[in-house]
Amino acid sequence: MKKFYVMAVLFMSSLAFNAWSMDFKAQKVSDGIYAYVGPLTDRTPENLGLNDNIGFIDTQAGWVLVDSGGGDVAAKKLESIAKGIKDQPIVAVINLGSQDHRWLGNDYFSKQGAKIYATDKTIATQTRMFSDLTASIAKKVPQLKGTKLKTADVVLNQAKNKLVIGGVEMNLNFYGNAHFPGDSVLWLPNSKVLFTGDVVYVDRMLGVHPWSNTITWNKAYKAMRKLPAKTIVPGHGAVSDWQKVDADTGDYLNKLIVTLTEEAENMAGVDQAVNANRNWPAFKHLEHYDSWHPQNLNRTYLRLESEM
To answer: Residues 112, 39, 135, 18: is their CA dihedral positive or negative?
Structure first.
């Protein structure tokens, strides 16, 4: 028993050291706007589940965070990043989506006095999937076990929702279900900065889950694309412009829908449709292409077929 205890302590100490030794930093995106850009790998104990991108907006009232991490430990790390830039309170958190690392830190920030904002569609998905999400992330990142459910204090129910926090105008917009039902984007019109959440992936292949809807995702992307953004902070990958975002997400979504609609109309069958489209050279540079692309083809074909 004593040997087991010692090994457990050493293991946890190793996790703590690795997390501490990682480069958890935010980069400046525009005046008063910063982004933590997570690694392209999966959630791990070393990255505290912070393998997504998180925003930090400096306002007269304090920091506004764009998403909150996957639980208390991740939220505390985000808090330290923010206060390392400027020592002021975190007054608000805006949830763009329902995937674990986007909102399970809400409870921590709420207890520190922050007000949580989200659309009603995002909240519905968060509530419905909470148990599965917490169980899943705790397996990958044991430090995040025990997360408490906390959804928004301010529930927004329009397609476009104007907010002014600490003198900064923001627009929380919902264009359609994407990676998760209820995925939203945050548009900052004065700085022309767009936080897309999981509507956009760059540098890595986007993932189509059973609950994803590539039909509405493609439509949402096209509607969002009308925004005159100069700087785009995607859900995953490097801070970009429209050219990069189109190449890595917009073109891929559109090709999925156009190509597989034709396959479904010709009644090709899912296996033939997937095999005929495995090789899309324009997207092979994306991390996880080999594992995600065939699955994306499969799930998109089946959804299109079911809706014909």
So the answer is: negative
Which helix (H) or strand (E) covers residue 156, if one does?
strand 154-156
How far lies 272's CA from each of 82, 260, 276, 277, 293, in Å?
50, 11, 6, 9, 15
Q: What is the pLDDT of residues 158-174, one digit of tens each?
A: 999 999 999 999 999 99
Q: Are 187 and 167 in contact (CB under 8 A)?
A: no
DSSP string spanning 31-97? TTEEEEE--SS---TTTTT--SEEEEEE-SS-EEEE---SSHHHHHHHHHHHHHH----EEEEE---
* pLDDT exceeds 80 at position 133: yes
Amino acid at 193: V
pLDDT at 13: 45
CA distances for 114 relative to 58, 153, 190, angstroms: 14, 10, 24
What one-letter code names the amino acid at 28? K
- Going along the chain from its start, the domains and CATH numbers come out as 25-306 (3.60.15.10)
One-letter amino acid for residue 229 of the chain: A
Q: Where are the alpha helices (DSSP H) in the chain?
A: 2-21, 72-85, 100-103, 106-111, 120-140, 214-224, 242-245, 251-265, 270-276, 289-306
Closest-CA residue to 68 (of 125, 115, 32): 115
**Which residues are within 8 A (CB) of 251 and not within 5 positions of it... i.e. 6 or more apart?**
282
Half-sphere exposure of 263 (CA within 13 A, CB side): 25
Alpha-carbon gap, residue 119 to 126, rounded angstroms: 11
CA–CA dist 98, 110 (Å, integer): 17
Give the three-class secondary structure for 169.
Answer: strand
